[in-house]
Amino acid sequence: MWHLLPRQVESLWTLFTSPVVWALHFLACYVGAAIYCEKPGILGADFTTLRVAIAIITVLSLAMIVVATLLAWRQWGFGTEDPPHDDATRRGRKLFQGYATLLLSGLSFVAVIFTAMPALFITECLR
Amino acid sequence: MSDETASHHDKAAEEAQMRAVWATPGGWRYWTSVNNTQVGLWYGSAAFAFMLFAGLLALVVRAQLAVPENDLISANLYNQAFTLHGTVMMFLFAVPIFEAVAIFLLPSMLGARELPFPRLGAFGFWSFFIGGVFVCGSIFFGAAPSAGWFMYPPLATSEQAGIGADIWLLGLSFIEVASIAAAVELIVGIMKCRAPGMRVNLMPLFAWYLLIVAGMILFAFPPLIAGDLLFEMQRMFDWPFFDHTRGGDPLLWQHLFWIFGHPEVYIIFLPAIALLAMIIPTFAGRPIVGYSWIVLAAVGTGFLSFGLWVHHMFATGLPQISLAFFSAASTAVAIPTGVQIFVFIATMLAGRVVFSTPMLFAIGGLAIFVMGGLTGVMVALAPFDWQAHDTYFIVAHLHYVLIGGMLFPVFAGLYYYYPLIGGKHMSDRVGRFAFWMMFSGLNITFFPMHIAGLRGMPRRVYTYPADIGWDWLNLVSTMGAAVIGIGMFAVVVDVTLHRRNAPRGERNPWNAGTLEWLNEPEENWGVRSIPRIESRYPLWDQKTLAQEVNAGEWYLADAREGRRETLVTSVLDAEPEQVLRVGGTSYVTIVSAVTLGTVFVALTFKWWIVSLAAGIAFLCAVLWWLWTGTGEIPEKEEKDIGRGLSLPIYVSGVKSAGWWAMFITMTGDGTAFASLVFGYFFFWTIHADFTGGLAGPGMFWPLAALALFALSWGATLAAREFNRRGGIAYARILLLSGALLTLAASAAGLAGPWAHAMDPTAHVYPAIVWILVIWVAVHGALGFIMQLYCLARSLAGRLTARHDMDLHNVTLYWHFMLVTAGVTFIVVGLFPEAI
Amino acid sequence: MAVGDAHPLQHLTGDNLSVQRPCRAAVTLLIAVALGACSGRQSALDPAGEEASQVAQLFWVMTLGGALIWAGVIALALYASRWKPHAVSDKAAGRLILWAGAVFPVTVLTALLTYGLWLMPSLRPFAQQQAASLTIDITGNQFWWHVVYRLPDGSEVVSANELRLPVGQRVEFALRSADMIHSFWIPPLGGKMDMIPGRTNRLSLMANRTGTFRGQCAEFCGTSHAWMALPTVVMPADQFEAWLIARKAPSPGLVADDAGARLFLGQKCGSCHRVQGIAAEGKAGPDLSHVGSRLSLGAGLLENDIENMARFVSHSGFLKPGSQMPFYLTLSETERSDLSRWLKGLQ
């Protein structure tokens, strides 16, 4: 299954993948709801549609975070070694990056779920 | 034997020369120094002084509130005092103190000689200092801002706000420039100037935090700068961005302010926690437990903090679903914060803790901060915030957070790092006394405020009636404030008077493990030689390191060419890449800061001519700075840095520090631009017809401008390629034609709203179109100057086929320019047609 | 054995006797202070309305939980830094971060967020199609409140600087501002809502006990922000009806041919203030039709009596810095007394 994942990338930026997904998800939810509530005519749908849309992007975002998590897990050597990953080697650095990315993916996963929770409870553009 | 003496002699000569190259200028020229040690110290002292000033204002505020219906000071003066207290604490203490600590500590912590742009750092300091004195001084003329530190329009745009509002806007815009300068400096410093071998998994945690914080500044400060621009356009020229009678909306300011304002809280908090992350391992006598968890916490907080801003606007009547998203993110941000705290507890649990004065402040700060954090979670829930918002409950909450999460850690840092400043310790006895005074005073002052707030006391009231049950709570608070004052006074005495005569202590008195403790306070060079690092705590794990470094046995131990130099290494693994020559002592930083300061001060008083003249002077100063101080072609290609390693001195493109600086600056610039575009669409969402029935700029001129900008971009790009391949003449022609195209493009951009007689004072639609177009035109003007600058450099022989750093950086600018122009002209030209 | 047991016990009780009384007294005092600390006519923790009750409950839940968590974290920090007998292993410390630093907060916060989100839509239910039985328009001004009661029959009653509400009925507010941003807030009834120029914000409140409360502007709105209070009386529904009916007509105390009335018109007070029944239709200042019957003067600033009325007329800008009302220092002592007597008579 692992050969399905993309090739390993050597970059500091991979660390930020999952939080960026969270940020985009958050932005989409906020902007979508804001435009829907300010200009109900433009999207031409009822609030349920908005909630369904939020559900869909939430599932997509979570899926992306899961992929990022798998990549991070691989970079972490599938957890074969324990932290602190402070070896002065390229391998030590990669294990650290993998582990930190994995932790961040966990946080982003929870944060995306938190961001989506309002759609469960709030059923109209109440203000 | 004689060999050894000879080499010893060599080393001594080497050391003497190095000392001469890095020497601090004497006499009044001392102030032209740009070395990070001096600049960091000035920065810190100035920020500390501003803090004391704001503290005195707080005492005035508390004295006025001690008893009900007090008439100690007038309502007007009270409003100035609390506004200035908040403004100064936030903008002139909390943010700058971290810049100060970072500038002071980072180079030696990373094993670098200097930050990559020392003159930029000095320029930032002078900008901050001039702006700060200007803002603080206003209260002595009764002209201080008085609309609260978040300056909500319409109060702050009204006549009632007076010149104070202009002082706030212009003074602080100037200081924001300094913050962004610091961010550029710190990001490049942390990414590119670490000691060889200091891979990202070995970086001191302080550097990790600072990297994240500097990144946050790039996305947090520009929206405020954009907001300031709109605000000042309304105050000076009556452009109605926040005036609802002409289509504006006061809420836009609240959005822009808090998109800045909430991340700012974390910009303040994270560096202070970073200090704890350095202090706690030292006193636990072991490496931190959960290094990766800290990285998670720092990065996670950095991101989540941008999803919180509307929790300052829970009572503005936005749709509940919007509030709920922000409520959710505000709750989520508690998770990384919790992780952070437990990393510290776990480290102490797994070590043997020496309970020193810095630790006292650290643990005390933790106790206070956790309480502020918990009330923070409470107000994250919108229903509770509807009650607590804008009351003394919030005042209590924010002081618990800021004092526990920032002031106490900074004091812990002061006691911990003080030996690095002059080699002397601060007094433990005074420290403990100050701690207990401040700790108890803080709780006496702010705990009752929770209750006062819940009993209905709104913030920012200059007095209150006697019969509501707020009187004894306020009296207690005032007494507590006096106790804090005593503690603070003790520290001030300790820092300024007592320590002068104290004996010189040992180096690394706490037996810490990180590189900054190699620093010798007398020396300006950071480290004698730059070592290769193999551990997170090199002084613990590499036993002979200190001795080798000081003996000059490591890299770059000489300054034979008489230049200040530091190493540039790769981002992930810190492999040496380049010897970077950094700027030395110079007037240019002060001249630039003074002229730019004059521009802002003159604008405040509407002295247009002075402002224009100062602006031109500033431009000249910056060009002189760049021309003489950057992109210099070295006398040789490579330098031998010892241990058989030879590195290039000149690199251009992605590998050069200048390219990164441009990239980072333009990211911040792009964020400010994005905020203006956000404004455009904000007005679109709140109005049925956001054009107010007025004519737009049409399609022709915007698209013509876009086409011309694209051509100019192409010319610049082609010039770089021709130049690289030796086609110098073609490159020059392309640069010249690019410059002409830029002029035409900017003119075409302005022609759109001009030709359609759009009056920016009539309605917000023409105003926002004008501001976007002007933004592009001003950037066009900068692009024009850059193209001509490269042409001049080429003609002067300072830009060649091999040495083309300037052209690379300008091309990078033009990439951003093209995006800016593209977005602007598509939005203003096509969007009105599309809907 | 029994003796051995009794001995320390006796010793303990004996020892405690001297300590216990002050101790018990202290606890009693503490409870009294704690309860006293929450009460008050402007207190969010002394609820008299639906929303405030639910939020107060939320507050107590969070405070209790928060206090426990705080104590736990601090105890752990002190244990780790001072009291622990020996250092724990890195692995155990790592587990602490995972469970106490990550898993525990996530669990608690999820529960809390659910509570908060569940509460949000139910706190402020609005009637469908504006069919509320009573709507009150309130407009914030520097530094006073313009209040208009919109009755179901389409009629309206205009008042200022005081709010009357029927107990047990849901009331909807339309909140606007005439100048700066203000914030409408009556803590015992519910949370606040900003009044923003150019926008109309809605709020729905239901009082569930009668009493006199104090609302106050919660958003800094200028020099005298501190003196922008809104005395609020929650009355039984029938009394409220009667009160409204009385306010529909001019004040029975209105004597048009009075020295005070002549002064009022002569000094052009009517160009800013409205008094039902005479030629005073001003809108820049508070409606004075029934000013004599209000609980306070100057939006909660002063007790409503003739003397204060006279003070306010001549010195409003001293009493309320930044107020738009001009000084009337030129009035003679008799004129001031005539005018304030007449105004106080507008019951």
Description:
The complex is a heterotrimer of chains A (127), B (835) and C (347). Chain A has 127 residues and is mostly helical. Chain A has helices at residues 17-38, 40-43, 47-75, 90-116, 118-121. Chain A has one domain (14-121). Chain A contains 5 helices and no strands. The longest helix of chain A has 29 residues, at 47-75. The radius of gyration of chain A is 18 Å and the shape is elongated. Chain A starts with 16 loop residues before the first helix and ends in a 6-residue tail after the last helix. The relative contact order of chain A is 0.19. The mean pLDDT of chain A is 89. Chain B has 835 residues and is mostly helical. Chain B has a domain at 653-834: Four Helix Bundle (Hemerythrin (Met), subunit A). Helix content of chain B is 67%, strand content 2%. Chain B is built from 24 helices and 4 strands. In chain B, the strands form 2 sheets. A two-stranded antiparallel ribbon of chain B has the order 1-2. In chain B, a hairpin with a 6-residue loop joins strand 1 and strand 2. By secondary structure, chain C is an alpha+beta fold. Chain C has 2 domains: 38-86 and 124-248, Cupredoxins -  blue copper proteins (Immunoglobulin-like); 259-344, Sandwich (Immunoglobulin-like). Chain C is 44% helix and 18% strand. In chain C, a hairpin with a 4-residue loop joins strand 11 (274-275) and strand 12. The longest helix of chain C has 37 residues, at 2-38. Mean pLDDT of chain C is 89; it is low at 1-19. Classes of the chains: A mainly alpha (127), B mainly alpha (835), C alpha+beta (347). Chains in contact: A-B, A-C, B-C. Chains B and C meet through helix 3, helix 9, helix 10, helix 11 and helix 12 of B and helix 1, helix 2 and helix 3 of C.
Q: Can I get a quick summary?
A:
Chain B is mainly α. Chain B contains 24 helices and 4 strands. Chains in contact: A-B, A-C, B-C.
Quick tags:
A: 5 helices, B: 835 residues, mainly alpha, Four Helix Bundle (Hemerythrin (Met), subunit A), two-stranded antiparallel ribbon, 24 helices
List the helices and strands and how they pair.
The complex is a heterotrimer of chains A (127), B (835) and C (347).
Chain A lengths: L16 H22 L1 H4 L3 H29 L14 H27 L1 H4 L6
Chain B lengths: L1 H20 L14 H30 L9 H36 L7 H20 L24 H31 L12 H33 L12 H35 L6 H14 L15 H13 L1 H16 L7 H24 L1 H7 L3 H31 L5 H27 L16 H26 L41 H4 L3 H6 L14 E5 L6 E6 L6 H17 L3 H22 L8 E5 L2 E4 L8 H30 L13 H25 L3 H28 L8 H32 L9 H30 L1
Antiparallel strand pairs in B: 1-2, 3-4
Chain C lengths: L1 H37 L11 H34 L6 H34 L11 E7 L2 E7 L5 E5 L2 E4 L3 E8 L4 E3 L8 E3 L5 E6 L4 E6 L12 E7 L1 H12 L10 H8 L7 E2 L4 E2 L14 E2 L4 E2 L2 H14 L13 H12 L3
Parallel strand pairs in C: 1-5, 4-10
Antiparallel strand pairs in C: 1-2, 2-3, 5-8, 6-7, 9-10, 11-12, 13-14
